[in-house]
Amino acid sequence: MNYLINHNKRILYYLGIVIIFLVISIYQPGFYHDVVIEALAEPNTNEISDEPDSENDFPWMIGPWAKYPHNPILTAGDYEWESKNVLNPTALVKDGKVYLFYRAQNDKRISCIGLAISNDGYNFEKQSEPVLVPTEKYEFAGVEDPRIVEIDGIYYMTYTGWIYHTNYLCLAVSKDFIHWEKKGKILPDWPMASKSGAIVPKKINGKYYMYFGDSDIFIATSENLIDWEPEIKAVLNRRFRKKDNGERYFDSLLVEPGPTPIITEQGILLIYNGANFSKEYATGEVLFSLEDPRVVLKRTDMPVLEVDNILEEKGEVNNVVFSEGLVQFNGKWFLYFGMGDSRIGVATADLKFIQ
């Protein structure tokens, strides 16, 4: 009951702020950025460093990232079910090959999940049929934005079920990553739209953890990877506050988990996506504590990957680099990302951390 009361209070709070914004925006355009956003700002009290994005204390990031000069590596149009767009891929390595699970849209913009396979991480062969299609009421308008993790020989794929007016974080399970058993909505009582579930690949303190959300980033825990208990307090907030020079952060509008997190000696490294108030999407990195996965140890001040060419500037959604797939392959890190919500690219980095 207290859980629901707190949720309702949070919803009413934000509803009130939205109403204030609408009234102010009518009579005083431009006021939103300087006043209302500062009122909305909630400091992330989980951050234990005054400068969590200072990167020189100890090495913790992957990078620098170099975009493949021959991007895009995957485009739409080979099959009817992916005739419009391909985007937002997740990836894993098995038997010396990269398996890329990607969101595909047809001309009606209904999404399903396709699969492409590569021997070198750059050149992919698409499979002729999707591996996941909309079949349930909670996903009738599309299955979107997968993230995959292998734990104890079982593959767990979180994805977004879309029904036009809202979306649900869903789960499918497989033993061969070809045939999938849907487990339904995994946060059925979450009072807001839910998506973008990135599962930490190992138990920590006897529990599995999952980062999720597409405004701020929240956390959920599970004993069995099927039943999840979310926590209402965000673990990574949008950065509303301005920098000392008056500029906004690249993640001032929203933050959203990217690929499956990796565990290093330094902590839990999560690559995440952020957007600013110009609705330009870029990629950042954040390090959470292994002792308490809610606690932020480090966070990038600047994006590690951002829009810099016409194929990212123009597309189904303009000005988007959206990272969602990360693998260690052939002595490098490969980071797969959506370009303008219309095509798929890859960036690589030296192998600093071993999973």
Which keywords apply here?
disordered N terminus; 355 residues; 4-stranded antiparallel beta sheet; mainly beta; 6-stranded antiparallel beta sheet; Tachylectin-2, Chain A
| End-to-end gap | 40 Å
Report the CATH topology name of the largest domain: Tachylectin-2, Chain A
Evaluate the radius of gyration: 20 Å
**What is the string of helix and strand elements?**
HHEEEEEEEEEEEEEEEEEEEHEEE
Major β-sheet annotation? 6 strands, antiparallel
Classify the beta-strand content into a percent band: 35-45%
- Class inferred from helices and paired strands: mainly beta
Return the domain count.
Answer: 2
The proportion of residues forming helix, as a percent range, comes to 10-25%
Overall strand count: 22
Please state the average pLDDT score: 87
Shape: globular
Look at the structure and give the CATH class of the largest domain: Mainly Beta
What does this structure look like?
- This protein is mainly beta.
- The chain folds into 2 domains: 1-40; 55-350, 5 Propeller (Tachylectin-2, Chain A), CATH 2.115.10.
- The protein contains 3 helices and 22 strands.
- The strands form 5 sheets. Strands 14, 15, 16, 17, 18 and 19 form a 6-stranded antiparallel β-sheet that branches. Strands 1-22-21-20 form a 4-stranded antiparallel β-sheet.
- A hairpin with a 2-residue loop joins strand 2 and strand 3 (97-105).
- The model is unreliable at 1-9 and 16-55 (pLDDT under 50).
